[in-house]
Amino acid sequence: MKFKDQLRFVRQNMKKNKSRVFMTVLATAMGCAFLIVLASVGFGLQKSIVDKIVGDRLVTAITVWGKKNIDQQLNAEDLKYLKSLNHVKAVTYKDYIMQPLVYTSDNQTMSTDKTVAVDFEEEAKAGFALAAGRLPQKPGEVVAGFHFGKTVIGPEDAARSEDKRADKERAEGWIGKKLTFDVHQLVNGKKESFPQQVTVVGIKEKPKREWLMDTNIYIEIGLRDQIEQLTGTQLGEMRIAANGNEEAYEPRAFDEPRNYNSVETFVSKAQQVKETAETMREKGYSIHSIADEVSQIDVVFTIMKIGLVFVGTIAILIASIGIFNTMTMAVTERSQDIGIMKAIGAHPRIIRRIFLLESAWIGLLGALVGTAAAYLLSAAVNTGVPLLIQAFMNEKVPQDFIFSLIPPYLAALSCAISVGVALLSGARPAKRATRVDVLRALRRDV
Amino acid sequence: MIEVKGVSHQFNIGKKGSEKIVPVLHEINLHIKKREIVAIVGRSGSGKSTLLNLMSGYIRPVKGEIHVMGEQVTHLSEGQWADFRLRHFGFMFQSFQLIPSMTAYENIELPLVLQGMDTLKRKLRVQELMERVDLHDYAGHYPGELSGGQQQRVSVARALVLNPPIVLADEPTGSLDSENEMQLLGLIHELNRERGTTFVIITHDEQVAAIADRTVALADGRLKPGKEQVTYEV
Ligand SMILES: Nc1ncnc2c1ncn2[C@@H]1O[C@H](COP(=O)(O)OP(=O)(O)O)[C@@H](O)[C@H]1O
Ligand SMILES: [Mg+2]
Questions:
Q1: How far apart, in whole angstroms, are the C-alpha atoms of residue A80 and residue B82?
Q2: DSSP class per residue in A345-414
Q3: Which terminus of chain B has fewer CB atoms gathered within 10 Å of its CB, N or C?
Q4: CA distance B80 to B75
Q5: Pick the CATH number of B2-228 from 3.40.50.300, 3.40.50.720, 3.40.50.460, 3.90.180.10
């Protein structure tokens, strides 16, 4: 018998007692929705809490503090080694320019003091996120931190309070602006200035943590090299002339081997962090990864989620009593039809399959309706609960905090559970259907 | 075609412990040939249905063997019997045994569906047969909307739709009036001649015996040669 025909039989059979089938589907849907919504709280809280902890940091990042002990800084050799590791897709570092650069633009002066040289090629691979614009392509192009504009000193201060534009728009206003600054150095005991000009081509994304301000200027390694050429020292560090009993200070020359700070390596998938981190530790690197931190929390939540799914499954099991009942009644009602079919040559296997299919169908319908309902309920919880908390406890729920989250695989899992449970509860009635005695079913005749 | 060899059957009735044995058939030998219409007659309760049920595989004989088209069927499992029935037998019953929730068309189509034939071929077959049994206007009617004679013609069509070599019919005219009975018997007779289908028909009716090539009589669980036409050794 063709599957198509089996399905047709099932549909015809289900039409014979619509209200009973409807109630059974409804019960299954309720069980399924209950399971999903219950478990979704586990998923939602986990995501909210983990997101809070992770913040801007990437779970695929491994921070490398140093070697052996933290005092020993990383050198070019180490960077090369880290890049060569399996899974590692990018290695980034931050070279802070070691003299305060004062930027001016259109007669506005910025109080920014941090200028960071980064390897944009690696940053791009690591996922350097921009709020607007693009990444620099030559030394004369820079990226400004999201709050760079807030550091304007002087006349802008007054104007700023009147500026009603949104933060993002205001930040974007900096794109295309030219910034000038001077690089200073003591040359033969005399302070000299080298004027420079760069163009803002991109704005870095706003830090996820609300209280963080990003007022940095991010420059190309090429520009760092130019600055070093001018000062003759690494990272543009300034010489200090001898003064009274203070000795003169000569920083490292720009062509000496250099150390790298804030080194971070990035792997492609969070699951690769553990293995990669292990390798690095064995090599004597002192490292830290947010994944380490989060994995502890994940374990707790995984246990919690399993518990919730378990409790939710009980609801489906209760609904399965309904399915069992419906199928048992269906078999009883249709024993005459079953008898006729067997009498003319229907294989018991076919009869069992038709009834199993019917209960699976009920389970699937229930699961689909239940899943749809669960998504609605979940949305309601996410908008409703913060309002309730605000109204009754006078406390504000942090922004982006979600209580209920339904990942697709949770929906798929509960559909599988309810179809599975439906099949289980249909198994006995289906078996009973195959045992219908032909002669007893045709009794009218005998 | 069908060979019944030394078949005996009995029923156990009553509760366990105080069972009563009711012997129904005793050492039955019967040979049914190809293209024959065989009528089995006998008083009510003489064991006619039991004999047919044994041939259909609905029950198993206590003793003896049954061969159908050279195959020993007495030891087939339930599933094997189902396949065997579908392939070799068409069935007719006194109360038609049509599925009430299916239309005449769907009832006739049922064996084809069970066999797994595809829709288009099915349609041709069913339509041809509906034409043959004069039911082409009733395809969409449910059994409840058909007269007894029409219902029994639906069941003839269902019995023949897979072109089985054998049709087993238990009192097919039992609930028909004489006019419908004559019509049905005529139809069976024609189909037997056209298709060479073997018919085994149970009846306690003289009319049926009229179209039969041979009549055998059951009495007290034993087979006796019938009154008419060619007789057959016991
Ligand atoms: N399932 C059964 N259980 C017990 N006795 C039965 C059963 N089926 C038939 N019988 C008995 O077997 C005998 C023959 O019945 P049956 O074959 O139906 O006769 P017929 O079809 O010739 O009228 C009857 O006495 C009947 O009571
Ligand atoms: Mg009978």
A1: 74
A2: T--HHHHHHHHHHHHHHHHHHHHHHHHHHHHHHHHHHHHHHHHHHHHHH--PPPTT--S----HHHHHHH
A3: C
A4: 9
A5: 3.40.50.300
Ligand 1 pocket residue status of B58, Cβ below 6 Å: no
Residues paired with A249 in a beta bridge: A240
| Cα separations in angstroms, A103 against A74, A112, A169, A225 | 31, 7, 21, 19
Mean pLDDT within A94-115: 86
In this predicted model, what pLDDT tens digit does every residue of B18-68 receive, in sequence order?
Answer: 888 999 999 999 999 999 999 999 888 899 999 999 999 999 999 999 999
End position of a domain, from candidates A195, A212, A239: A239
Span A232-252, pLDDT tens digits: 999 989 888 888 777 888 888
Is the Cβ–Cβ distance between B6 and B28 less than 8 Å?
Answer: yes
Best A12, A340, A342, A435 member to test B by mutation, with max B CBs in 10 Å, is: A340
Q: Do both A428 and A321 map to the same domain?
A: yes
Closest CA to A97 of A12, A218, A272: A218
Query: B168 in the Ramachandran plot: left (φ > 0), alpha (ψ -120 to 50) or beta?
Result: beta
Q: What is the pLDDT of residue A171?
A: 81
**Which domain, by its residues, includes A180?**
99-239
Judge if A166 and A105 occupy the same domain: yes
CB B182 within 8 A of CB B106: no
- Strands (E) in A98-249, as ranges, are 104-105, 108-110, 115-118, 130-133, 141-144, 152-153, 178-187, 190-204, 217-220
- Pocket of ligand 1 contains residue B11 by CB under 6 Å: yes
DSSP letter (8 states) at residue A208: S
Sign of the Cα pseudo-torsion (A227, A231, A232, A238, in order): negative
The amino acid sitting at A148 is F
Whether A201 and A306 share a structural domain: no
The interface predicted TM-score (ipTM) is: 0.93
Judged on CB neighbours under 10 Å (0-12, 13-18, 19+), B148 is middle
Instruction: Give the model confidence (pLDDT) of A173-206 as tens digits.
Output: 889 999 999 999 988 888 899 999 999 999 999 8
Q: Domain count of chain A? A: 2
